[in-house]
Amino acid sequence: MKNVIEIENLTKYYGKARGIVDVSFSVAEGEIFGFIGPNGAGKSTTIRILLNLIYPTSGGARVFGRDCVKDGYEIRRDVGYLPSEVFYYDDMKVLELLKYSASFYGRVDMQRLRYLAEVMELDLGRKIDDLSYGNKKKVGIVQGLLHRPSLIILDEPTGGLDPLMQQRFFGLIREENRRGATVLFSSHILPEVQKLCSRVGIIREGKMLRVEEIGSMRDTAYKKIRLEFREEVPEAPELPEGAGDVQRSPRELAFLFRGDINEAFKSIARFDLRNAVIEEPDLEEIFLHYYGGEDGV
């Protein structure tokens, strides 16, 4: 399967300020790829380089096999982009704005325009200036999907949408993906990524930590161990190698563990336990675990 997005050693500095450093990953055709990290991690910088809205300091990026700097215009014609913040001509009506946007891609498909607006419950007759932030986000969603793009790039797309509209939006993205569209889904909200994506790239402070399957992030190699003691927990109990993210209260201890579970219990067998619980950590706990160490593990 060919790659729609290929990023290699991409670096961007804003003067002396760090944007991203040596970012590399690829997105396969037909994939929904999650790009996650906290605000300021470098997600939007990476996306803006892909769209040729800013130039990289070094490294390279290709979309549809084309160079993002040299072929930005051709690339953008087949990309649907929803930025984290949307800004429009306030005096225009929604329908006028969408027709104007669609005209850049050729013929305006009114049937598709009205279908997308109906799904997102968007009033086409209202002026942009009268819309709430959430309704402006709906305009951005319709605008981004109107021309049936082969690549959909979403940067924090659900801000301002209520839970019902979020589900409708996810439904549209799945529908476009079944049609064959590739999706790059950038977010700091982990449950969203988990619902939609097959693989995920994790970025921190401008550097990629890793790229892996969503399922492997919840691999059985990771366990969450909760211990309840009959007496107070020592200030610094000796824990097994592979333990991290330790949380303690006077009579309880919890930590993430990766390794041989037998070794874990050998190290705590000397304590008088009231109870022990072993469970699968959720995606957010694993994500925070990656961010906790200097090396991201």
Q: Which characteristics define this entry?
A:
297 residues, alpha/beta, Rossmann fold, Alpha-Beta Plaits, 2 domains, 6-stranded mixed sheet, 4-stranded antiparallel sheet, 9 helices
Description:
This protein folds into 2 domains: 3-218, Rossmann fold, CATH 3.40.50; 222-279, 2-Layer Sandwich (Alpha-Beta Plaits). It has helices at residues 43-50, 72-76, 94-103, 110-119, 133-145, 163-179, 190-196, 261-268, 283-292; strands at residues 3-14, 17-28, 32-36, 58-63, 66-67, 79-82, 151-155, 182-187, 199-204, 207-213, 222-229, 243-249, 252-258, 273-279. It is an alpha/beta fold. The mean pLDDT is 87. Strand 1 (3-14) and strand 2 form a beta hairpin.
Q: How can the largest sheet be summarized?
A: 6 strands, mixed
The stretches of 5 or more residues where confidence is low (pLDDT under 50) are none
Name the shape in a single word: elongated
Total E-strand runs: 14
Structural class per helix/strand content?
alpha/beta
CATH 2nd-level architecture of the largest domain? 3-Layer(aba) Sandwich
> What percent of residues adopt helix (DSSP H or I)?
25-40%
Count of structural domains:
2
Identify the CATH homologous superfamily of the largest domain.
P-loop containing nucleotide triphosphate hydrolases
CATH domain topology of the largest domain: Rossmann fold
Number of helical segments with 4 or more residues: 9
Spatial gap, N to C terminus = 30 Å
- Order the strands across the largest sheet as they lie in space: 6-7-8-3-9-10
Keywords: ATP-binding, Nucleotide-binding, Transport
Protein name: ABC-2 type transport system ATP-binding protein
Domain ABC transporter: 5-230
GO molecular function: ATP binding; ATP hydrolysis activity
